[in-house]
Structures are given as C-alpha cells and as structure tokens.
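Quick question: what would this complex look like in 3D?
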Amino acid sequence: MNINRRMVLGGISTAAAAAVLPVEISRPAPDGTRVRKIATEEAFVIPEMIGPLRDVLRRGGPNLDLKLLALIYGEVSAAALPSGAMPGANRDAFARTLLPLLLDIDAGRLGDMDANGVDVHLLSLGIPGVQMFERDTAVALATLTNDRLSEAVRRHPTRFCGLAAFAPQDPNAAAKEMERAINSLKLNGFLVNSHTDNAYLDAPRFWPILEAAEALDAPLYIHPRAPSDGMAAPFGDYRLEGSAWGYGVETGTHVMRLIFSGVLDRFPRLRIVIGHMGEALPFWMWRLDFMGAPGSRAGRKNQLKPSEYFQRNFAITTSGVEDPLALRFAIDKLGVDHVMWAIDYPYQATAPAVAFLDAASLSDQERAKISYQNAERIFRIAPSRQ
Amino acid sequence: MNINRRMVLGGISTAAAAAVLPVEISRPAPDGTRVRKIATEEAFVIPEMIGPLRDVLRRGGPNLDLKLLALIYGEVSAAALPSGAMPGANRDAFARTLLPLLLDIDAGRLGDMDANGVDVHLLSLGIPGVQMFERDTAVALATLTNDRLSEAVRRHPTRFCGLAAFAPQDPNAAAKEMERAINSLKLNGFLVNSHTDNAYLDAPRFWPILEAAEALDAPLYIHPRAPSDGMAAPFGDYRLEGSAWGYGVETGTHVMRLIFSGVLDRFPRLRIVIGHMGEALPFWMWRLDFMGAPGSRAGRKNQLKPSEYFQRNFAITTSGVEDPLALRFAIDKLGVDHVMWAIDYPYQATAPAVAFLDAASLSDQERAKISYQNAERIFRIAPSRQ
C-alpha cells in the first residue's frame, strides 16, 4: 500500500488525490478476482438545486445547516479563498471545492471510481436534499432529482444505482413519489436528511412516508443534517453543528424517537439504514437496552428492546468512520449482515475509504458482505455479471 | 457465578438483590488475594437537599431534569405506587425507591459493598447537585455537602473517599470551596453535573473553576444531567432526556465545547473524568480527529486533535455500561491507563456491575488498573494497607 495516508487523511480533495496517487489495487479475493466494492452513501446534486439553495441562504434564519451550505453553495468564488488555501485539514476551504464534484454524475465521478477500484456508487441527493425548500418547490425538485438520478443510472447501469429523494413537507406527495421511484424508475430506496422543519419522522403527519417505505419494502436511509432548531443552541459555537459532532447527535436522536415512540411497532417491516458506523448507537446499545427496555418509562411505547429493533429494522454503513476498531465493534455488536461499506463521497476522499476497507481485518466472508453482498441484498442491487 | 443475571439486570433494587443473592466473591488475583475494587461514580445526598429540591419541583419550568427529580424527590409516597409495581424494568418505579439508598452513607451502603466485595466508594453528590438552586443556597449547600462528605470519609476512611460539590453559580466562591475541599477536607476531586443555568464550562465566567481545578491538580468529574433548555426540545418526548439517551448527548456536547473552544489549551493540565464508558466519545474518536483537527473550521480554537486531549486531559469510567465489548474498545482506543471501574450506585445495582468487572476478559495488569490502580493514581486515593 503506497498511499501517503497522512496526506490523504488530512482531507486532500479527491481530484488531487487521484492525480497524486497511483491506481489503487484492491485486495484480491482468494480465487484471484477482485472483491466488488459498492459504496452506499455517495452524494450528488443537480444544477437546478443551486438557485433555490442560494434563495435559502439569502433568506437566512437560525438553521445551523446554513453554515455549511454557505461554503458549498454560496456565491463566493474559489478565487476569493485566502491565497494558499488548500483542502487539507481546513474543512472550510475543502467545502468550497465540493460543488463541481457533487454535480458530476458522469465522467469525473467514474474516473475517481476507476482510479480507486470502486465498482458502484449508490447515489443520493446531497445534504439538505429538498428539505429546506417551501413545499411545492420541494415536491417539484424531488421529482426532477429522481428523473435525473434515473437517467444517470440508465447511462451507467453497472456503475450507479440510487436512493430517491422525496419532500417530507408534503407526505402524501412524498408517498406517491416513493412509489414512482421504486416501481417506475427502479431506484433502490430513499434518503431523508433527518428532520424536516424541525420535526421527526415519528410525527403522525409523516406516517404516510413510513407506510410507503414499508409497503414498497425499500430501505429508508436517514442521513444527518445539523440539529433541529429546538436543540441547536449549544451547537451554535465552534461549528459543533456539523460532521464533527452535531450530525451524529441529530441522527441518533432521530433514531431514538423512532424506537421509543413505537412507530417501529406500527411499521414493523420498515427497513432503515444509518451511516457513520451507526452514529455511535452500537456503542450505546447495552445502555439503551438496560435503560430502554419495554415498559421502562411512562411515555415510551416501544414493544421491543432497542437492540431488537436494530436486528429487525436497521443496517448501518461505515461512511466517514474509517476506524478498523469501530468497524470490528460494529460487526461484533450488530452482526456482519448489518454493516455496509460507504465512502461519503465527495465529502470524504475515495482513496483512504478504499484503503480502510482493504486493510480491515476481516474474514473473506465478512469482507464480501461488507464490500457488496449486504448492499446487494438490502438495496436490491443487481449482482455483478462477472 | 450463581447470580440470577436476568433478574439483576432488570433493575432490581440493591437492597433486594443483597437479600436474594449470595455474597459475591470477586475473582482472585494470581497470588490468591482479592483485587481491590474502587467504585468511582457513586452517588449520595444529604437530607438538607430534599427541601430545596422540592422547592425546585414546585417552581417547575422547562428544565427536563424535573422529570426524574419528581420521581426521586417528589412527595409521592411509596404507598402511592401502582399495586404490584416492582423495581424491575420499570425505571420510574425504581426511581421512587432510591432516596433511602442515596441518603445512606453508613451501614446500609457498607452492607451493600460488603455483600458484593466492593472495597471503596468514591462518593459524589447525586444529580443535579446544587446546580438548580439559587446562588446563595447553592453555595451554602455545597459547603454543607462537603462537610458531611468529609465526616463520612473520616468515619470510614478505608471505605469512602469523595468528590467535592461546588456551586458554578458563583465561580469565585466555587474556587474557594474547591481549595478548601482539597487542602482542608482532603477530598479527591470535584464533580459537576454538566451545564449550570444552561451554560457550559467553556464560558469565561466559569474559568475560575477550571483554574482552581488545574492549580489544585485534582480531577473534575463531569457527570450528566438532562440536556440544557436550548437543546431540550427533541428530548422532551419518550423520556429521551435521561439515562437512555439525553445524558450522554448533553455530556458529550459539554466535552466537545471544552475541546473546540480551546479552554484545554488555556488550562492544559486540567484533568477531567467522564462516565458511561466515555459517553461514546471513544467510538467517535476517529471522526472527531478527522473532522476536528486543529484549523479544521473557522471558529474553532483547539490546538490539538481531540484524541490528543483525551490522552492528556481525560479519563473515563465504566459507570452504567456493563458491556465487555465496549470496555475492550475503550481500552484499545484510549489505553488502559484511562479507564476506571464504576457502579453508578444506587442508580445501577452493585452485583451486576461487579459481575461485569469480574467476567471481563482482562489481563491481570489491566484488571488491576481498571479495578483500583488508575483510581488510586487519578484521584490520589491511598493504597490499601493489605
């Protein structure tokens, strides 16, 4: 492995990494063939999102997602960066380089995948999806996004598959779009960026969305966004709202609401995926079970222990947590059938995410499951024709 | 091991457990002597707290700690419990049994320790400490608490040691009381229940407290409480504010504020202890370092990576997380010198916490460090005379 890991881990941009690094050869399987790599939390945007997102930025307000969105979508040109700013450890400067990578669902992305031995991106609309738009704009842009996503998959059917966007602002329209995404567009599931207008999916008005996901038997990926306004105050300093801390708190809290509200008893076949090595919930699992068993507190409605919902309803991905020790913990805690590999492209660089997977101490069976078999099963991705 | 583990894990009260269970014999060391057990997060209250806490309950307000406090300190007698209510998985019923256990820093507590082979309780004032009282009451009750604590330690010097309370509402008085607690009362450190009036210790007005802890070279234990009002909204349902979820989020957020504000660069020798297997921060450490390296975001002031602060400034305890897999992860991630055993008495039962430690797969050296040596070093607890 002749990757300069320190440089890569410092946050170098994918394009620069691809230029500097030799082609990454993934660890061969015992029979000499490569192990397929399906990356399961890979972001894109469509150009039509940019204008409405800039409207959101101009409108302003307390929402902490605006901090990152201003960097990615703000009208500051790259030329305005401090001279010498490089996308190294400085995540602010790095964020300003992301938009071209997000917009590319063709040659540039495929080049990065090829250079690093990644077979498939499971694509999803980048944070915050359509969830910060007013209702009609959100519904229209979700439809347009799914059309574009479907076109990209049809252009490159062996390289891309996709999770549909939907507009939680209009739950009935969302349910219809979810049906179209699976039955007509043949997409592989759905992705939501945690709360919408500061409300979580346990709220009854969102139940048509959960009902549709369950009826279509397609997984719902709950991706982070910054904490909702009602919990935002302590996250307003030191950029605590984002990927270093707030994202995990927000998404973990969302999952806790789904579990303790009892909605997973109402929709027992709902399948949910969460990223970032399970947002630390595997590490909390013993305490969640001890403190959160059925009947543990007035006001909780869960009929199962939290770990039982994890066995029945949840899978996790490794996005953004390239820690062999955490991967081993997650496998040992949840079972290897519940863990999938992801890059979090383009927010994380491809080469180190690949190196992490290649270097992980896994049995051949575990490697196959985490690298592609679980993704094929959970997202109904066609097996490779090899 | 003939503990009925299921019954114990269900939350049976300690008194009942002591009656049912045989005396627990801890695993002998290779030379046939017992391994000393120092439990490092063990709660008590003094009777003079009850009246003021009931005043806090009568005053009411948005603070989510009131939910648990109403169960422990509310004027509902045990006779008002639903008939047949048992302190099993029902944590609400269990909470109503806690007050006598919290008030006992003599025979009853020693009996529980003896029955389970626990040598020492490092005592600390139970949640929420004096932090919900108005300033003068808080200052007076912190002083009285520390006097009582010191008396209990003098009555039973080989069995009890203690962490002093202080009133963050008056930082200068707090600093003076901290000095008295270490230099006159010979206590072993301090404990704070996370935020005070919704503010965190990175706020400059609290710096006299951090300065005192550093100057006295005595550790500051940051214990959970329910999330501060500015982040409380999504924790207001399903009892998410408490031990199952909100406590960890609150305390982890507090630690993130200390790290990213740069106060640990201002007070580089400050020693901090956090419970609950590190409030999941060990599991987040890779991502914290990746996303939170120095210079990662405008508005952050940390000069080190988060993991470097953990090596320099932090230790953790196992309180309330009796998970062998999480213990192994924490040791492998932080190093065995950073991990101490705790029960979280009386909120958690003693017997299963002891069984967890006895059954953990540890080398003899690791067992000694986690069971007592780290606590002796970190809290300056006198070695056993054996």
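Answer marked as accepted. Chain B has a mean pLDDT of 91.
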